[in-house]
Specification:
The complex is a heterodimer.
Chain A lengths: L3 H25 L2 H5 L7 H20 L1 H35 L2
Chain B lengths: L1 H21 L1 H4 L4 H5 L3 H16 L12 H25 L4 H15 L6 H7 L16 H14 L6 H17 L14 H18 L4 H15 L7 E2 L13 E2 H11 L4 H13 L2 E4 L2 E4 L17 E2 L2 E2 H13 L3 H15 L1 E4 L2 E4 L3 H12 L5
Antiparallel strand pairs in B: 1-2, 3-4, 5-6, 7-8
The chains are: A mainly alpha, B mainly alpha.
Chain lengths: 100, 377
């Protein structure tokens, strides 16, 4: 399994790319003009894509940075714990060897 | 095991809350300072998009809300806000005059087409230009008159100069003739925000043509302060009785913010007082993202077509229009926080050399240009 930071980087880049594609797509689709045209058959599709886009946008700016911070902290804490366990093990082994 | 999971969940939640409270304000709306500094590239990018919409000559067909009145009003609004915004950009960057005057002329052309006023004709039974000398009402023509005056400032040779003179004279006559200082928008309907546009047009025209209309403007200013500016919130009431001038609706942020913009053309002190009310009493902020409350203190409501959606008491229109209040008041913090909200939900995209807000469309982008480039008092 890949490193958690690599997985998160891949996910982040995918979401950012999707955000850009949807932003340009909605701009091309003339989001507001369509939403203001209740008779337009594509209005529900545009509305659905628009809601998904805004959910993604809010997630990207308000949640993803926190996920990054959490992941980095988790990786650091895990590395710290491994290092401490390794140190404990070597200390334990050394004391075992030193025992008469 | 459970304790570890709970600790991890708490850490995760803490991380998300911490970054949500501090991060997005750094990432979103970074163009705010460029607008505050009248950065040429930034303003030109949005102005190019607005000019492109204007040269498409947005017609009633661009909007299909299901209401002919709203469709017409919005097409009308898009044309006039395009003229206002582009003129402000030209004022800040005179070298762009030849770039935008054609689009402004085209927008004025559209604005003054007979078809554009179909919504007014439907309401009054006659067009706003049919009987300028003896007619009444049509306060919405204050917006058109102001736009023509602004075009005339930038482009004195415009062919709309004579109709501008006639329109402002007619509106001034109607205002003077009213004992309660009201010009109706539609029969039986009057709105202080629309009357503000009439006064703005008169004030701007007086400055342009060196006419003295100070007595009329001072009279209206007194009426506004004594009857239509709410004592508690400092907001303008949204709707009034055309016969008596008595308030009919609550004090509202959307009408106040647009009214403050109009008053900046006629009475800087009243405009500054309305700006102050918006930026102090009306301002709401959450993790660096600002908004303007739609209803004055002690009033509640769900908004309407004027305010746009109202979320947590904050309205889209009041927040967008108040950008100009923050610029006029040189309140940079307020401008930045309001702009962040506009950028978060507006979503700016670049196309070629231009840039525009995805959720703006022709009207929203024209309004944003006009508000983001409003001139300080």
């Amino acid at each position: 399994m890949k490193h958690p930071l690599v997985r998160l980087l891949a996910l982040s880049l995918t979401l950012i790319a999707l955000h850009e594609v949807l932003a340009f797509g909605l701009d091309r689709a003339e989001l507001i003009e369509r939403l203001l045209s209740p008779g337009d058959p594509s209005v529900l599709l545009v509305l659905f894509v628009g809601v998904c886009f805004y959910a993604l946008r809010l997630g990207l700016f308000f949640v993803l940075p926190g996920v990054w911070l959490y992941t980095v902290l988790s990786v650091l804490l895990k590395a710290l714990r491994h290092r401490r366990e390794a140190a404990d093990r070597s200390l334990h082994a050394a004391s075992h060897r030193a025992r008469p | 095991m459970l304790r570890t999971q709970l600790t991890q969940a708490a850490l995760g939640l803490g991380c998300v809350l911490l970054t949500a409270a501090t991060g997005p304000r750094q990432l979103i709306g970074r163009d705010a300072d460029r607008y505050l500094e009248d950065d040429l590239e930034t303003e030109r990018a949005l102005a190019d998009s607005v000019a492109e919409y204007a040269s498409r000559a947005p017609s009633e067909e661009a909007f299909h809300t299901g209401s002919a009145r709203f469709d017409g009003e919005w097409a009308f609004g898009a044309a006039l806000m395009s003229i206002v915004g582009l003129a402000q950009v030209v004022e800040a960057h005179p070298e762009l005059r030849s770039r935008y005057v054609p689009a402004m002329e085209q927008a004025a052309e559209h604005l003054m087409r007979e078809e554009t006023f179909a919504f007014g004709r439907a309401a009054w039974g006659e067009g706003p230009l049919d009987d300028l000398q003896h007619g009444r009402g049509h306060a919405y023509m204050g917006y058109a008159a102001l736009a023509l005056g602004i075009l005339r400032e930038v482009h004195p040779e415009t062919r709309f100069a004579s109709v501008h003179d006639a329109l402002v004279d007619a509106l001034a006559y109607r205002l003077e003739a009213s004992e309660v200082g009201v010009v109706e928008t539609y029969p039986g309907e009057a709105y202080p925000c629309d009357i503000s546009s009439v006064i703005a047009a008169i004030g701007q025209h007086a400055r342009l043509t060196h006419r003295d209309r100070s007595a009329l403007i001072a009279r209206e200013s007194r009426i506004f302060r004594s009857q239509w500016v709410d004592g508690e919130s400092g907001y303008l009431v949204q709707s009034i009785d055309p016969e008596t001038g008595a308030p009919r609706d609550a004090p509202r942020g959307s009408g106040t913010a647009l009214g403050a913009f109009f008053w900046s053309f006629a009475d800087a002190t009243l405009s500054a007082d309305l700006d102050h009310a918006l930026l102090t009493q009306g301002r709401a902020e959450f993790v660096g993202f600002g908004g303007i409350r739609e209803y004055g203190q002690g009033h509640l409501g769900v908004g309407d077509i004027d305010s746009g959606p109202v979320l947590f008491g904050v309205s889209v229109s009041a927040t967008g229009f108040a950008l100009s209040a923050a610029r006029r008041a040189r309140d940079e913090d307020a401008f930045r926080s309001l702009f962040r909200t506009a950028a978060l939900f507006g979503v700016s995209v670049s196309h070629g050399e231009g840039a525009r807000f995805v959720s703006g469309g022709p009207l929203g982008n024209a309004i944003m240009l006009a508000m983001l480039t409003a001139r300080p008092l």
